[in-house]
Prior knowledge:
Elements: E1 20-25, H1 40-54, E2 59-64, H2 72-77, H3 82-106, E3 111-115, E4 124-125, H4 128-136, E5 140-144, H5 154-164, E6 169-174, E7 180-181, E8 193-194, E9 196-198, H6 199-204, H7 212-220, E10 225-229, H8 235-240, E11 247-250
Parallel strand pairs: 1-2, 1-6, 2-5, 3-4, 3-5, 6-10, 9-11
Antiparallel strand pairs: 7-8, 10-11
Helix pairs in contact: 1-3, 5-7
Amino acid sequence: MAGRSRSQPARTAAPAVFKRVLIKLSGQALQGEDRHSIGPEKIRSICEQIKGAAERRVEIAIVAGAGNIFRGVAGSAHGMDRATGDYMGMIATVLNALALQDGLEKINLETRVLSAIHMQEVAEPYIRRRAIRHLEKKRVVIFAAGTGNPYFTTDTAAALRALEINAEAILMAKRKYDGVYDSDPEVNPDATFLPEVTHLEAIERGLKVMDTTALSLCMDNKLPIFVFNMNDPQNLQRVLSGKRAGTIVKAGL
């Protein structure tokens, strides 16, 4: 059989059902073998999955936590001032954002880090219109430093930024479990997987999707959340194709 003609265009990936999404990564998803670290292999795997999404012309924003480096809540539990601890956690998210930027640019994805705390030598300041313009130019935008305020988690930052940039969904990439359960599977081995739940149910039942502030923001604005295991490299593509992967958290009737 004759080979493909040089003039014949290469096959492209099928269009996605979303035009613009925000991916929320936990800090643990980036953790290396050491407890407080960034794992190069984890970064590489995540970046390859994001590249697959970008090749489908999806506009991608990212918010990463900092649990692999420092948690403000953990610091305050040991006597540190809560606001100080939260600012330290925000700075730790910038480290993760720069690691992701480095990984993405090594595979030829144009990327911008926008920080809620001004660090002009390493990141652009967060400006909503600038973020949207980067996305329109098909640059991957990484939001760092949370909301820029203490007492707010990166979950809340993800919900806020997703709404500000008019994202169609939040994709919650988990490091271990396949989605949302009716109780903590770390504690209860008989926890039941929930394929679908409303924002209100998640709040009322205390399900570990996002914190209450973030869930309330998503509920009030009918922003769906897709919770899935990122260790399966096909799950992100399944979600972008409109197929079932993990749990869908959506508005009620």
